[in-house]
Write a structure and sequence with these properties.
By secondary structure, the chain is of the alpha+beta class. The protein has 5 helices and 3 strands. Helices cover 61% and strands 14% of the residues. It has a 3-stranded antiparallel beta sheet.
Length: 98
């Protein structure tokens, strides 16, 4: 049985539990963006978007870089392979059971 790091999974699933954060990941999958651009796209305040980006950053899903006054966001190096494997394993269990 594969051993998973609970804190890593908790951070990943907590980050992915919010529709805005999933949308941010989708947007960053297309192109890097500043926090200001993301806030405008999602019709929220800069402070609100900074908090969302912070959660994604803590989970390792997003990285940010500040150049001058602009903080640019891009997808992080961390992939979701372990989380996808966990979901697939449970999907197969449920499919077999039902």
């Amino acid at each position: 049985m594969v051993q998973y790091s609970p804190t890593r999974f908790d951070a990943s699933f907590a980050a992915l539990s919010d529709a805005t954060r999933r949308g941010v990941l989708e947007q960053l999958g297309r192109a890097d963006a500043s926090i200001t651009d993301l806030a405008e796209k999602f019709h929220m305040t800069l402070t609100g978007m900074k908090k969302h980006v912070g959660v994604l950053e803590q989970a390792g899903l997003v990285t940010t870089q500040k150049v001058g006054r602009v903080r640019t966001c891009r997808l992080g190096l961390r992939r979701l392979e372990e989380e996808a494997a966990w979901i697939e394993r449970h999907r197969q269990l449920w499919a077999a059971r039902f």
